[in-house]
Design a protein that fits this description.
281 residues, alpha/beta, Rossmann fold, 7-stranded mixed beta sheet, two-stranded antiparallel sheet, globular, binds S-adenosylmethionine
Length: 281
């Protein structure tokens, strides 16, 4: 049988970042639409260490997951750029059986996840949807959302959190990963793309990863990726996110400090983001 786009000959291992990058690049050419090619690039940027993905938060997130993942738990991953969060959930669960639904607005990461070799204890499903339209009620025991909120505007943020709250079963919990960031000075904002592209190219060269496609096509996609970044800079603090969670009805919210993400220096000023995990019930 001839393999289809989302059905390669061999299932992929979740830690084979080079193969995942190739799959994302290939599938993204067909499936990335609203994201502007974000997911087509994401795998290669993750493999080269340009973007951190969920791995940077594993030390803090994994114990919270292990505590939350009881046998048979129904889990929703609300926004997932690649198999990283799913794989972290699988590691945290061990042999505990789970049902995991991976939801994203873009089909590309879901198609990549569908190419993975199956997890023995986890039943995985994918769902392409805009979370502002999620209308499930009491459907999941655990919802994990990693760095999704900066992708949407303030109104959609409130809408999504309201819907996630409604989608949690009684006694369920939301694990929300966020990054606090400071606003960029205007002069630095104007030089953001140039600085970010230079840093990305240096990291890609140092990492030695093979590019997933032709260099000219990859470089053009890198320029487009850089241009979309500033719109996703969410200038916020964990206190503000905690207040947002309480405003949609979460009664208990605990905040855990995670790592600082890699810095970007522009015009002598250094911008870094600090990760936090919020556990809300
Ligand atoms: C920053 S990425 C997540 C990165 C995360 N660190 C990871 O490893 O998966 C945020 C994800 O949320 C998704 N997303 C953004 N807005 C969304 C929406 N309205 N509905 C569903 N997914 C959305 C994006 O497509 C993206 O894959």
């Amino acid at each position: 049988m001839t393999p289809t786009l989302s059905d390669p000959a061999e299932p992929l291992a979740p830690d084979d970042l080079i193969a995942l990058a190739r799959a994302g690049w290939r599938l993204g050419a067909r499936y990335c639409t609203a994201c502007g090619g974000y997911h087509r690039m994401w795998g290669a940027l993750r493999a080269a260490g340009v973007v951190g993905g969920a791995d940077a938060d594993e030390a803090v997130l994994a114990p919270l997951l292990t505590r939350a993942l009881t046998p048979g738990a129904r889990v929703l991953l609300a926004g997932s750029a690649d198999p990283g969060i799913l794989d972290m959930v699988a590691r945290a669960a061990g042999t505990t059986p789970l049902r995991v639904m991976v939801a994203d607005i873009c089909a590309t990461p879901l198609k990549v996840i569908e190419t993975l070799r199956p997890y023995p204890a986890i039943q995985v499903e994918t769902l392409q949807l805009d979370l502002t339209t999620l209308d499930h009620e009491a459907a999941w025991d655990v919802i994990v959302s990693h760095s999704m909120l900066p992708f949407v505007g303030p109104e959609a943020r409130l809408e999504i959190l309201t819907r996630l709250r409604r989608a949690l079963a009684p006694g369920g919990r939301l694990l929300l990963a966020m990054r606090s960031a400071s606003a960029m000075e205007d002069a630095d904002a104007a030089r953001h793309d140039e600085a970010w592209i230079a840093r990305a190219q240096a990291k890609i060269a140092r990492s030695g990863i093979p590019l997933p496609g032709p260099a000219d096509e990859f470089d053009a996609a890198l320029v487009r990726y850089a241009a979309l970044r500033p719109a996703r800079l969410w200038v916020t603090t964990p206190e503000q996110v905690e207040a947002l969670l309480r405003s949609v009805g979460f009664r208990q919210v605990e905040t855990f400090r995670s790592q600082e993400s890699s810095e970007l220096t522009i015009g002598g000023r250094t911008y870094a983001k600090r990760g936090y995990i919020l556990e809300a019930r």
